[in-house]
Amino acid sequence: MRKSWDLYFMDIAYMASTRATCRRRHVGAVLCKNKKLLGSSYNGAPMGVADCYEEGCMLVQNYEEENGQLVKKTRCIRTIHAEQNLLLFTDRENREGATVYVTDEPCWTCANLLANSGIGEIVYHRPYRKDHTKVQQLLEQKGIIFRGLEDYHPPQGTDDSQVID
């Protein structure tokens, strides 16, 4: 039995994520239009610059409110996100009305960039609860379809959902 287009393209996004160069999380993204793959990307340091495997993660810490309490959050800033790389290496003309499949729900910054890129739909697998509400509101306002694949199972050996601190 053949896979649906959603599962097929999400599998490709997960395969792209295996090229990621941040030890904390591997994220992949693909751009598709009319059942045609137009581009793929992953998160990592800029070309020609040492990455997290070579130099270690470049971590920053900040405090965010969660359920009325301040919680310390740590994130790596050495890498360019998969969605950002996808936009850097695809043409606006190809993005008009296209779908982005991404292994992880976009953060606020990536959602802003995608909202202005011409795409018509974002499909993700792993949730990113921190920004979910505001991202959902933004994309709804822009008329961009935004949906998660909850019952999806990534190809074996590609899901690194563990974040290393």
Automatic annotation (TrEMBL):
InterPro entries: APOBEC/CMP_deaminase_Zn-bd, CMP_dCMP_dom, Cytidine_deaminase-like, dCMP_deaminase, dCMP_deaminase-rel, Deoxycytidylate_deaminase_dom. Keywords: Hydrolase, Metal-binding, Zinc. Its EC number is 3.5.4.12. Pfam families: dCMP_cyt_deam_1. One of its GO terms (molecular function) is dCMP deaminase activity. It comes from the Bacteria. This is dCMP deaminase. It is an enzyme of class 3 (hydrolase). Its cofactor is Zn(2+). PROSITE patterns: CYT_DCMP_DEAMINASES_1 (PS00903), CYT_DCMP_DEAMINASES_2 (PS51747). CDD domains: deoxycytidylate_deaminase. Residues 4-146 form the CMP/dCMP-type deaminase domain. The keyword Metal-binding applies. It comes from Ammoniphilus resinae. Belongs to the cytidine and deoxycytidylate deaminase family.
